[in-house]
Design brief:
The chain has 124 residues and is of the alpha+beta class. The protein has 3 helices and 6 strands; from the N terminus they run H-E-E-E-E-E-E-H-H. A 6-stranded mixed β-sheet has the order 4-3-2-1-6-5. The chain is globular.
Amino acid sequence: MDTVSENTSLIAASKVNGTYVYNRAGENLGTIYDVMIDKVSGKVQYAIMSFGGFLGMGDSYHPLPWNQLKYDVDKGGYRVNLDKRQLENAPSFTSTASPNWDDRSYGNRINDYYGNTGGWGSQL
């Protein structure tokens, strides 16, 4: 079903999935696998980026605070101020070992790694 129209500032969540993520040098780091939305505020908290692997096998998933992504119209994807080495050391999970999203220490670890202040669920 592709009935949701977009404009320059809005996009359907279903269209965010699969969007490429690039570093500041323009290198493709991965794709958006999913987004995590706060049920109460309605704000997107994290983009879950699929990173590594081959043909969907061996991928690791990296929750990136949403405010770390900037949409690049020319690339048709998101840019992050990170390199592959930083992502390799970032909090991540696999398809067989998903995090406990109710564990605030996991959210705090993500925010701490990326320099977000204010703790769990913070958006700068």
